[in-house]
Amino acid sequence: MTPEDQARLLAQGTEEVLPEGGLLARLERCARDKRPLRVKQGFDPTAPDIHLGHTVGMRKLRRFQDLGHQVVLIVGDFTGMVGDPSGRSKTRPQLTEAEVEANARTYLEQFYRVLERAPRPPRLPVEIHRNGEWFSTMRFMEIMKLASEYTVARLLERDDFAKRFKAGHPIGVHELMYPLMQGFDSVAIRADVELGGTEQKFNLLVGRALQEVRGQEPQLVMTVPILPGLDGVQRMSKSLGNYVGISESPAEMFGKIMSLPDALMEDYWRLVTDADERELREVRAALGDAAVNPMTVKRRLAHRIVLMYHGAEAARRAEQDFETQFSRRETPEHLEEFHRAAVMAAVGNAPRAGVVELLVAAGFAASKGAARRLVAQGAVRIDGERVTALDAPVDLDAVFVVRAGRRMKRYRPAPEAGSGPARGAQGRAAGS
């Protein structure tokens, strides 16, 4: 493709490309020099799952890769221990080195669900770095030099810092270092372009400033939209429990997408599927047609997303099981299971295992507070019987099916337990 065609294609679906006109100029120069752009995005491994929200930027990276440019992924093992303050109203809890390392290992495999691991020319293999490669060897005077290359006044122009400072909320000095660390990543790998969500714009611009100070040509900044979570209110986030992990089971993924508010369907089709412009126009037309049931469009969306990450057979089976579960009111044959060990891990300081701990262990709620809200909303059933009591106990020696909204899993005491019929719910969920 010509540089003009590439610039037009790469800018599609972005929020901003800065500076204006810079992408075309850089592509033209790279074409003359016969070298690819170095396109960077960083991921802090603060949780083990990469979710659909992450893939908005990763799919843009894949487009760069398809055009023959060099994708550079930064696994933020050091920035992850600091914690990105972007959009935060208070200091994030700091993760331990062991927690970050465990999460980083899962990221490395999940990247290749979107990007190509061993591509054919002209595509280039992904270049992956952990930013510990440079931060772990920095001497204190080098850190002081980095700190001298940006001012506190400019850091406090950042919206989240400004709000916290004005409100008298504490800001850790380590949080002020975070934008400098992310910016230095761009220096270390000599980035031509950096991608990030719209909330990352400040950090991306810091990278430009530090590159200029260090005598490099400043990177282009490309921001992509933030994907709303399944609640339709807040951004997709593992900590908020409103996410779809790209390594989740087909049934779990399908069920979560089917719980999506109708108003978000167009965003999801546009941001996280491989639909082209023609298909997106068809989707918009269907959503605007009063004669078309939105559930039909949502079912197509769920099928497409499962197909992208698990293949055609898994998508067919997930849709079939969903139909069995919700249209025929039957229990699907292929139902994901969880076991006693997961429930006991969720018990924590509770005196015993109850329905709240069961929902956390099943992955239906990110916290006990969220589990209590599901019960209060009347969304929880055990073997088809609604659970209304927050203190409802469970019999962990039984086999039963737990449902929360449109999601369903089977509990067995242990993976090797027999597959006989589940016992009735009476006695297992008091107050149901």
What's the helical proportion of residues?
40-55%
The CATH class label of the largest domain is Alpha Beta
Quote the CATH topology of the largest domain.
Rossmann fold
List how many beta strands DSSP finds.
Answer: 11
State the CATH superfamily name of the largest domain: HUPs
Range of strand content: 5-15%
- Structural shape: globular
Contiguous runs where pLDDT drops below 50 for at least 5 residues:
417-432
Strand order of the largest sheet: 1-6-5-2-3-4
Radius of gyration computed on alpha carbons: 24 Å
Total domains, how many? 3
Second CATH tier, the architecture of the largest domain: 3-Layer(aba) Sandwich
* Cα distance spanning the termini: 63 Å
Q: Strand pairing plus helix content: what structural class?
A: alpha/beta
